[in-house]
Amino acid sequence: MQFRAFAGKLSTELLLTLVFVELRAAIVEDNATARTALRGHIMSIANLSVSSYTSGVELKAALRKQNFELLIMDYHLGEGKTGVEWLQSLKEADFIKPSTGVIFLTSDRSPQVIGRIMDLQPDVLMIKPYTIASLSRQLKHYLYYRDFIKNVLQALDNKQLERAIGVIRSKIQEGIPPRLVSDIRKLYARLLFNNGEVQRALSIYEDILSRSDKVLWAQWGKIKCQYAAGQWPDCKDQLSAMVNSSLARDEAFEWLASLSFEQHSYEDVEKYLEQIKFSELSLPAAKLKSLAFQKQDKVVEAIDLLQKKRALHRSAKDRFNDFTFELAEFYLLLAEDAPQSNRQESLSQARKLVGIAGRNQADAQMLQKRDYLLAFSSVLDGDLEKAAYFLEPDYMDNHLRTAPSMLVIAAKVHHSLGDERRAGELLLMAKQKNSDIQGISEQVMNEESIFSGGERLGLNHEHAVAINDTGTQLFIEGLYAQAMKHFYDAFQLSPTTAAFGLNLLQCMVEADTAVYRRFDIYKLLDTVSELSLSESNTARLAQLTVVVNANNE
Fold first, then answer.
1. What is the pLDDT of residues 29-41, one digit of tens each?
2. Domains of the chain (ranges plus CATH)?
3. Second label for 522, Cα 20 to 30 Å away, from 117, 128, 401, 467?
């Protein structure tokens, strides 16, 4: 769609006019002088109610009581998590509303830092030192844009994604102010992607890149569309080109490692992540690498990796605790895989680590994580009465902010205590939450955790049937791209059920798709043909084989 054709011819005076409604803004800056100066500048520019915080911990505490329309984040926040890491974790835990705007500030001009910030697609990025004039210009532009899309933001906060897209389409037809064309295209493409309209989003990104192939947010948008559409070879080619970009290098290697993990190429996971400096490995990337080690029976290397990352952040409490919890969880999974008689060493290490990370915690989310890990350790130790004791606090029933990986552990605990219905609900919740996570490596690891958890609890086939039914309805409606994802997921959950593989195969044929995620069409034919087939499935496979061969002659 050519947005410029719709650009409205508004006067310069009107473009500079802002509808001032007092909005709440939060500044997160660890330097007191910079924080005070920034607050004064912002209040002199716009009608904002401004609160100030020194860290992500303080912001998180404030977000439990109120929302902010605008976050102004510094990248470096002392020795703890960066502003990017805090924003990611707060978004994933539903502390930040979809309508919240983000302005990032940084004095670090290194390509890695700029790339990480841009990957989050902030509304504004400002490099320190900035002038009052540039701050004023950027802030006024954002407030003008925010006022223009206020109905879209309201719909997003009310979880009305299709309505939000409809509002944008109406505005495009009415005419977009020229200075907002880029902002609207960026928002429109993201919302289309979130709504499953991947090809339409892809067409916007490709149009932008046809005009300038250096637009980083459009490059990442294109990659995410290719990934979601199952076009993994194209996705890999694009990523392989981006490793040469200083702004995207580390993120591209992390994506390549994640794709390799999904294809069970664990040596390639190591190879790609070795290209990232050890100190720069994100928590999800470090977890992915440790899991790749475990898949190759390199347990010592996996533990050593997490221990070194933990030690590296000993002076940064929040990061240190994150890695401590992750190492504890790793020991618990080792205990789960071991015979009952050979679990004590791993359980002892896990409990010790949970005690360290859980000490003096006041955050309900962290307390819940601590107690679920302790409850799981009691389950593995055969002490169900003690496991039930850890579930007694009120905060244990609130799963709004619980991470997918912890929901899987919660499902295992509840299942062991006899509540199979609750266990099934928690696994489904984990899958739904994981679909909203933006980080590829975290999403891939969660999928692995959800699959293995469901397999242990005997729930995967039941979930696969439900997913397949949804895919069938989408297929009947002609929504092949969305149906394909459901059939693929069903076949992943129940890889011995030939009907699910045949449904995926037929959907690929109807959609004229030669490759979808792990399968090219001939590999899928071979995979299904090796399964136990009923008479009707044998006939169906024969028919599809004829069609595939005819299409490729």
1. 999 999 999 999 9
2. 3-155 (3.40.50.2300), 273-457 (1.25.40), 460-551 (1.25.40.10)
3. 467
